Each structure stands twice: as C-alpha cells, then as structure tokens.
C-alpha cells in the first residue's frame, strides 16, 4: 500500500507526539526518583531528631528526679 502525503504527515505527527510523551514520562520518572530521595533524607532527619528528643527527655527525667 503506497503512502500518501497525508499518511506520511500523520505518521510524522504521531512519532513527534510519541517522542514528546516519552520525554514527559522520563521527566516524571526523574521527578519521582528525586522525590523518593528527598523522602529518604527526611526520614533520616526525623530519626535523628527523634533520638535527640528521647535523649533530652531522659536528661529531663534524670534532672527532675534529683530535684
């Protein structure tokens, strides 16, 4: 089946659209990866501050028992 000018333009348009969508998906994947990395870092910070709070509570308990 011979391609007409219209079918070539449609194919080219579809290929451009597919390429555009693939680029969008790649950018979204990168954004998700960055978001997951940020969540992991925030979890580490939360763990650190939780330990700090627990240490301060323990010190407060020691101080108030001695008073």
Please provide a written account of the structure.
The protein is an all-alpha fold. Helix content is 93%, strand content 0%. It contains one helix and no strands. It is rod-shaped, with a radius of gyration of 29 Å.
What would a concise description of this structure say?
This protein has one helix at about 5-65.
Q: What are the key terms here?
A:
mainly alpha; 0% strand; rod-shaped; 67 residues; 1 helix
* Main beta sheet: none
Envelope shape: rod-shaped
What's the helical proportion of residues? over 70%
Rg, Cα atoms, Å: 29 Å
SSE order in H/E notation? H
Number of strands: 0
The average pLDDT score comes to 91
Low-confidence stretches: none
Measure the end-to-end span: 95 Å
Helix/strand structural class: mainly alpha
Q: Report the β-strand fraction as a percent range.
A: under 5%
Supply the number of helical segments: 1
């Amino acid at each position: 089946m011979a391609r007409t000018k219209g079918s070539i333009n449609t194919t080219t348009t579809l290929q451009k659209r597919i390429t555009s969508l693939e680029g969008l998906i790649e950018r979204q994947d990168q954004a998700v990866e960055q978001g997951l990395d940020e969540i992991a870092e925030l979890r580490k910070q939360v763990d650190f501050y939780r330990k700090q709070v627990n240490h301060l509570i323990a010190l407060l308990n020691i101080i108030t028992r001695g008073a």
